[in-house]
Amino acid sequence: MPTSLRHSAVHPHAADFLATTPRLSPALVRALSPFDMLVVPGLFGSDEDHWQSIWEDVFRGHGLSIKRIEQENWSHPTLSEWQAKLEQTLEASRRPVLLIAHSLGAILSVHHGLKHPASPVAGALLVAPADGEQSGSPDAARLASFLPLPDKRLPFPSTVIFSQNDPWLTPTRAHQLAGKWGASLLDAGYTGHIGNNSGVDYWPLGLNALHSLALTCHAGQMPAHA
């Protein structure tokens, strides 16, 4: 998981990055434009090199709506406090929301979906969900309040993306959890925990998965905020 917080709202080399990175396809921009997108980081937050942070900059550069959950304590999370922050942020949304979640943020998103089936969440990209039940990570104890892991079908479309060498989630467990949550499943290859040190940059594979998820949400009945 990430080891440092993101200190800037803008990627430090955003201008150079956007100048050298292929622009999002018009089809992807059209697919995402009806949504408010919400970045949901995991334990310790996501720094400026994390694909979540890079996506924020790129999406804003294309005029897309994207926000980030800000937690009071990234190092010692409690489910109730993290849920409260997620719910407060969602209350401000007036359009369907796509959750872009990583690690413990993915687990938080699943907990939220099962607790609030009528929330404005239209879909969730669940990247490298942190398996606090079976991971041998020394930080696993920090996730105690998020256990047991949810085991019911989510009320909205979702995609689980896993890595073959993620210390927090084995491929077998990724298949099991995706099956329980009713999520589609995507193999990201050997990319570790797909976090700050993964080297995926703006991560085209993840963007393609988000595009497919958005189209799935369009095809279904997207919830409206009350």
From TrEMBL:
Coiled coil: none
GO molecular-function term, one example from the UniProt record: hydrolase activity
InterPro entries: AB_hydrolase_fold, RBBP9/YdeN
Gene3D superfamilies in alphabetical order: alpha/beta hydrolase
Designated name of the protein: Hydrolase
